[in-house]
Amino acid sequence: MVDVLSCPTPVLQDINLDTDMNPKRETPASILIIGAGVFGLSTALALTKRPELASSSITVLDRSPEAGVFPSRDASSIDSSRIIRADYADPAYAALASEAQVHWRQTSPTSLGGEGRYTESGFILGADSEPLVRDDGSPTGLAYAKKSWVNAMALAHKEGRPLSSIRVLKNSWSIGVVSGTGGEFAYWGYMNTASGWADAEASMKWFYERVTATGRVTFINGTAESLETDESSRKVTGARLKDGTTLSADLVVVAAGAWTPTLVDLSSQAVATGQILGYMDITEQEQKRLDKIPVMLNVSTGLFVIPPRNRVLKIARHAYGYLNPKPVSKPPLGIPGTKAPEMVSQPITHLDDANLSIPPDAEKILREGLQKMIPWPELKDRPFSRTRLCWYTDTTTGDWLIDYHPYWQGLFIATGGSGHAFKFLPVIGEKIVDAITGKCSEELRRKWQWRSTESEIIATEDGSRGGKPGLILEDEMKK
Ligand SMILES: Cc1cc2nc3c(=O)[nH]c(=O)nc-3n(C[C@H](O)[C@H](O)[C@H](O)COP(=O)(O)OP(=O)(O)OC[C@H]3O[C@@H](n4cnc5c(N)ncnc54)[C@H](O)[C@@H]3O)c2cc1C
């Protein structure tokens, strides 16, 4: 390993990944956050709370085309619903989610969970009958579900909740009964009454209003096209916008979700994958019948259903997703001496193409999944009123990427949500600012650091994903 500070043109394997790129902890006079999703907005609020940053200016830039709308309506953080659970196979995320749940459970009208933003509906986490380990050694959905159950029990004990709040469902029949729909959608699972779901769009709006109320943060509508650098000092100095203007800052935090790899070369770190959702209109009577169902997720198939609201039922799939490799107009900022990627998987959303649909096979998968979870004949052939491709920023382990860039000073990356970061909205910013200011615990710092792996294909192998890795969106659309 070489010392990165004295190496003019390092190659990736030469970089000491433990090197701290802000060793002096100089207080940045200006901070630019690119992206107003969960990562960016939560960071902005946490920055306003730190006394040592009281005189730093904070700017949030988002490509949202609508003035005053942050984040953009096609951001991953915007949707009708997101699951809020501490049901994780990894105890570190279970513990952090439990911290976040304290905020979600505050349900006075002015609190995060109020006015229907959070509903503790209960949650069935299920899996198919399968071995615990795949041939390649990675965990299966069943392994994920069993570990998650152990962690959920430990949390119930720690939080002083009765252990009966978590109920093992040892066969598909019990799952069908507890689901309330008759849906025998998994072979083994458990019901956790202390989990639920959030209205994602309403929660983000509440959070945005919180951030603006501090009076500390300037929001700008605009798209960063590239990062500005001073090569002699190896420093990122700001961002150049599509309209030709430049925003300068001492510290640039790139929290651009699935768009991050188009700005910073994350070839060995994270990749944008498109995930499928279907929304179905239901009748008032059907809404009443489904009012009290829990959230249902099968981690072997990745399929999940969230209880409906306003007569719209949502089904989605937590999968390996689709890659959308496209040439980049400007190469993302990488490490000098390494080859810049010519093609980067990048999001395409309903804002790029109002008629965007999902691959025909995907629609079939959602329909079959819905029938397993809600096996009602009247829903079997009902068309989806709307479908959506929503973009994950996936890492190989499902761990986030929250770290200084290993080469460029003044550049901090906060992304890699891997399809599970929404629930952390009230706490993730504090962790990101801890990492910026060097106060992150050693365990979390190591978990979220720039990775030394150079995987050929990035596919999240944490046991929670359905489908097949490596599918190309364009090919699947043609089928
Ligand atoms: C289908 C789906 C289901 C999910 N379900 C759950 C769930 O049930 N529970 C859960 O906890 N999590 C869930 N997640 C994951 C969670 O929603 C994401 O991890 C989280 O929202 C990611 O936040 P983000 O800030 O990284 O990205 P985003 O919310 O996408 O925000 C990034 C922002 O950056 C902006 N931006 C991008 N490029 C630029 C640029 N060049 N210049 C300026 N601005 C830019 C974008 O406009 C966007 O607003 C789900 C995600 C999806 C897609």
From TrEMBL:
GO molecular function, a single term: flavin adenine dinucleotide binding
PANTHER family given in the database record: PEROXISOMAL SARCOSINE OXIDASE
Superkingdom of this protein's organism: Eukaryota
Name of the protein in question: FAD dependent oxidoreductase domain-containing protein
FAD dependent oxidoreductase domain span: 31-434
Requisite cofactors: FAD
Family: Belongs to the MSOX/MTOX family.
Signal sequence segment: none
Region (Disordered): 460-479
Keywords: FAD, Flavoprotein, Oxidoreductase
InterPro entries: FAD-dep_OxRdtase, FAD/NAD-bd_sf, MTOX
